[in-house]
Design brief:
141 residues
Amino acid sequence: MATPPPPKFMPDVEPVHHIEILISNLLRAGVILSLFIVVMGTGLSFVHHHDYFSSPGELKRIVQSNSDFPHTIKAMISGLQSLEGRSFVVLGLLMLIATPVMRVAVSIIAFAMQKDSIFVVLTTIVLLLLVLSFFLGKVEG
C-alpha cells in the first residue's frame, strides 16, 4: 500500500530542516563569538592595567556608570585599533545583541524560500521594529 502524498499546504520538510539548522548554527556561532570577544576584551583590560589586580579602588572605577567606555561606534573602532579592552567588550556585547536580529533576517529569507508571504510580511515588520528601536534608543540615550 502506497503512502499518500503530503497535503499541499505543508512545506517540504527537507528545506525547512536545513533552514532550522542554519538558524541554530547562526545563534550558536553568534553567542560563542561574542563571548570570546568579551572575554578577550576583559583579558586585555587586565593586561593593560595591572593595577586592577592589586587595587580594589581601580577595579571599582572600571565598572562604575561614569567610566570611560566607548559610547559611539567611532569611539569603539578607535579603541579596537589601539587594542583597548573596553572596546572589545563593547564589540562583543553589540554582537550578542545583533545575533537574534540576524536570526529574524534569516527567517525572512527562509519564509520567502517557502513562499509563505504572510510570515515574510510579519517577520519583516518585526525586523523593522527592531531596527527602529535601535535608532529610537540612540535618540533617547
